[in-house]
Specification:
The protein is mainly alpha-helical. The protein has a domain of 80 residues. Helices cover 65% and strands 0% of the residues. It is built from five helices and no strands. Helix 4 packs across helix 5. The termini are far apart.
Length: 119
């Protein structure tokens, strides 16, 4: 009996300021302000289909055509996902092209220096 009184006093002391029935969940329920908004349009219009990705990938395997495709996709604002992908591909391609030319210049310079040393 004494233990029940102690638990009851403990509960009353610790939770005096918190009334669980009046706890406001409204702020959590309306976390996304656009959830019930009819103007919020997140449809499948922005999703690129598998077939389009296959065509884009195959088109990027063809030399020079890949540059045209990537530039068109990077500049066009039709689909943000494809635009970002094309920009990333162009940036990576430019980085690898620069690295390739640096390695070729170093290799040619080293080959000329070793060729002069032989004769």
């Amino acid at each position: 009996m004494d233990e029940n009184l102690n638990n009851q006093n403990f509960n009353n002391q610790n939770y005096q300021g918190y009334n669980q029935q009046n706890y406001n969940m409204q702020s959590y329920q309306n976390y996304n302000p656009n959830y019930n908004n009819k103007n919020y349009n997140e449809t499948d219009d922005n999703v690129v289909g598998v077939g389009m990705w296959i065509l884009t990938t195959i088109g990027c395997f063809i030399p020079l055509v890949n540059l045209v495709i990537l530039i068109i996709l990077a500049v066009s604002g039709k689909n943000k996902t494809q635009s970002n992908w094309a920009k990333a591909q162009l940036i990576v391609g430019i980085i690898f092209a620069i690295l390739y030319f640096v390695i070729v210049i170093v290799a040619v310079t080293a080959a000329k220096a070793s060729y002069k040393g032989l004769y």
